[in-house]
Design goal:
With about 180 residues, the protein is an alpha+beta fold. The chain has a domain of about 120 residues. It is about 30% helix and about 15% strand. It is built from three helices and seven strands. The strands form two sheets. A five-stranded antiparallel beta sheet has the order 6-5-4-1-7, with no helix packed on it. The termini are far apart.
């Protein structure tokens, strides 16, 4: 038994395939995605704060390490268990403030940039963002890292003066090298 196959309409199929490929290429290179963004690099905006700036908390800020701050101050890490009193440690931790109240003032002691996200406080989640390390004026509050949106600059800042001093020192070094 012989099966008769009708002749293909090759011209029509080739045209349809070409249109389909063209549409796919248009979508591939115009839709947002990794291929069309391969040549683009976006620079992160600089931090709004400088070391030495005086800042105020705009809202309550959760302290890192259950109130012990960024450096886990007073936790007794590395102290042998036989030298620690666990019940006293629990009572001390329960008595600690866990939140920096809005309106509290401090000084910027450092900046954690987006590319240093690995060093963020453990309770921070989500996208990479800049952190501002603040030494609070109150002796009861440990040094901690806050987000830029939680802080505002206040008068009496040393940041501008410090930046100018660094520029002057850099200029003096260049002049000494050039002489």
């Amino acid at each position: 038994m012989v099966v008769h196959v009708p002749p293909r309409q090759s011209r029509g199929r080739a045209l349809a395939a070409a249109v389909l490929l063209a549409a796919g290429a248009c979508l591939l290179f115009t839709a947002p995605g990794p291929l069309c963004q391969a040549g683009l690099t976006v620079q992160a905006p600089p931090c709004l704060f400088r070391v030495g700036d005086r800042v105020r908390a705009k809202m309550p800020i959760l302290l890192s390490n259950s109130g012990r701050g960024y450096f886990n101050e007073g936790a007794g890490e590395g102290v042998p268990p036989h030298l620690r009193d666990e019940s006293e440690d629990r009572m001390e931790l329960a008595a600690m403030e866990k939140i920096v109240e809005g309106g509290e003032e401090g000084t910027v002691a450092g900046i954690l940039l987006k590319n240093e996200w690995i060093n963020r406080p453990k309770h921070w989640k989500g996208h990479h963002r800049t952190g501002v390390m603040v030494s609070w004026d109150s002796a009861d509050l440990p040094m901690d890292v806050a987000e830029e949106t939680e802080l505002e600059v206040i008068e009496g800042s040393l940041g501008a003066r410090r930046s100018e001093q660094l520029r002057m020192e850099k200029r003096a070094r260049r002049e000494r090298r050039g002489s």
